[in-house]
Design a protein that fits this description.
Blueprint lengths: L2 H11 L1 H29 L6 H19 L2 H9 L1 H5 L6 H16 L4 H24 L2 H22 L5 H9 L5 H23 L16 H14 L8 E5 L5 E5 L2 E6 L6 H19 L16 H15 L3 H14 L1 H4 L4 H8 L16 H16 L8 H13 L25 H20 L3 H6 L4 H10 L9 H9 L5 H16 L2
Parallel strand pairs: 1-3
Antiparallel strand pairs: 2-3
């Protein structure tokens, strides 16, 4: 009999464990109900419903927090401590207790009043952000952002940290990651990417993407987005759906109800199409979580960065590869014959990989993307260090863009109010994007090592082997392991920028003839 079967048998007899699982399922259901209200808020809710929705979400957040931090859960976790040590470390039961204890210890540091104030502040910030975008004016968002920053300072203080308040907030998204770790990673990437950006700039005319900037029918684009997401394995038939929102996002209420949104630009093809592949990557992760984890604390990804590794994998490594367009380009030409009928497949491939400093993060190319994340991370740190006041944030944003990308945002919409993330919280929320970029290549190279014919399969429209590999090696573990631990288990080493930098240099040296 395997260790896992023995542990499962023991779990059935352990009433404390069964009670813990029952209580955690209730908490999960409450959180997912709040997620459903959030999805509706972002997609179909009437604008005037924002205040009431804020109250709904605040109440749900409070109830979920109180249920999760109830003394009974603490007592159960304590009584299960010795039992947990008798189980295989990677068993479902030991992982459930371990992850629940880690999250319980953090959650009990947050006063219920702070949780409620944070939830209500999120709704006010979102409402202000929408208005600020409509008016193209940061000052409209500034008061709500100030409230959010103050609350996040309280959250960091309540959670506790040794070196920097951002450490506490980073740990919420990327367990075990610290500000110093991110600064080291950014330093390594900066050293490798900045010279490449300069070398490519000298050959900027080598790639023409002008044909991507012309009218592309909205409905046809949505059809293409659905077709591409389904092609790479996102189940749209019975377990998923795609909608429109101001900012693309993915949310799952179970492995059988996963939804994502895109933003369509009728004058630029890339915006909607690559957002659909990106969000489909998140979606396949959620649909790939084991069914036995439903309503469990393990029914999550390892971290936001590991989640991002899946979205960047499908968006960039697959979706911007020559092999993918060998399969998909004839189909796209049939949809847009006037726009693309005379454009060769090679020219299209090069165009969707054009490197050009841009203002909008979600539309940035692979080479400059991490510079966008560095800007945000460094600004957040400066605010927490009280070196930067929020009134000066737009100017500081523009200055960093000039220094890193050589361009200056002409307005707030293309500057510091482009992202939705600061409506959820302020601090640490962007680091996962860079972690995801780096981890995506690390995981892909391991998959390629075990399945050398993947790219030939992509050219035939066959993506199931790569998806299956990710299902078995990443998705199947849910939240059992932290991001670094999972990467070491799967690839044999922790997060490593080396493979990512080699991939970037190899790909773009070929495209630009460097």
């Amino acid at each position: 009999m395997s260790g896992k079967t023995e542990a499962s048998s023991g779990a059935a007899e352990n009433k404390d464990y069964q009670r813990l699982v029952e209580l955690l399922a209730e908490v999960t259901a409450l959180r997912q109900s709040g997620g459903l209200l959030f999805w509706d808020q972002q997609t179909y809710m009437p604008k005037a419903g924002a205040r009431a929705r804020g109250n709904h979400l605040a109440v749900l957040s409070k109830v979920a927090h109180e249920k999760f931090t109830a003394p009974e859960i603490g007592r159960l976790l304590e009584r299960l401590r010795d039992w947990e040590e008798t189980l295989p470390y990677d068993s479902d039961e030991a992982s459930t207790v371990r992850v629940a204890r880690r999250e319980y210890e953090k959650a009990t540091r947050l006063p219920p009043d702070l949780v409620v104030r944070h939830s209500r502040a999120r709704t006010r910030a979102h409402e202000a952000w929408i208005e600020a975008r409509q008016k193209n004016d940061y000052k409209v968002f500034r008061p709500a952002l100030g409230e959010m920053v103050d609350i996040m300072r309280e959250v960091a203080d309540a959670l506790g940290y040794e070196d920097h308040p951002l450490d506490a907030l980073l740990d919420q998204q990327e367990p075990g990651m610290k500000t110093a770790d991110m600064e080291g990673l950014f330093g390594e990437l900066r050293q490798g990417l900045v010279p490449l950006v300069k070398a490519i700039a000298e050959k900027a005319d080598a790639v023409d993407d002008s044909f991507l900037h012309q009218p592309f029918d909205r409905e046809t684009q949505m059809e293409v987005c659905r077709e591409a997401a389904a092609a790479v394995g996102f189940d749209l038939e019975t377990r998923g759906r795609i909608d429109l929102s101001v900012h693309p996002f993915t949310i799952g209420f179970s492995r059988n109800d996963v939804r994502f949104t895109v933003r369509i630009d009728e004058g630029f093809f890339n915006a909607g199409f690559f957002a659909s592949l990106h969000e489909a990557g998140h979606g396949t992760y959620m649909q790939g979580l084991p069914e036995r984890f439903e309503q469990s604390i393990l029914h999550e990804g390892a971290s936001s960065g590991l989640h991002e590794s899946q979205s960047r994998l499908w968006e960039n490594i697959v979706g911007r590869s020559r092999a993918f367009w060998q399969f998909y380009y004839p189909r796209l030409q049939k949809r847009f014959p006037e726009q693309l009928g005379k454009v060769s497949r090679e020219d299209f491939y090069r165009a969707v990989n054009k490197v050009e400093p841009s203002f909008i993060r979600v539309e940035a190319d692979e080479v400059t993307y991490n510079l966008h994340i560095m800007v945000r991370f460094e600004l957040e740190k400066a605010v927490f260090d009280r070196e930067l006041g929020l009134d000066d944030l737009p100017g500081a944003w523009n200055e960093k863009f000039r220094n890193y990308l050589g361009i200056t945002p002409p307005d707030d919409l293309r500057g510091c109010i482009q992202d939705i993330h600061w409506t959820f919280g302020f601090g640490g929320g962007f680091a996962g994007y860079t972690i995801g970029n780096v981890a995506s290549v690390q995981l892909y190279e391991k998959a390629l090592e075990e399945h050398p014919g993947l790219e030939e399969e992509f050219a035939q429209g066959e993506f199931s082997n790569l998806l299956r590999w990710m299902n078995e090696n990443v998705h199947a573990h849910g939240a059992k392991f932290g991001p670094q631990e999972l990467l070491e288990r799967v690839t044999g080493r922790p997060l490593d920028a080396g493979p990512y930098l080699a991939y970037i240099k190899r790909k773009f040296s070929d495209i630009y003839g460097l």
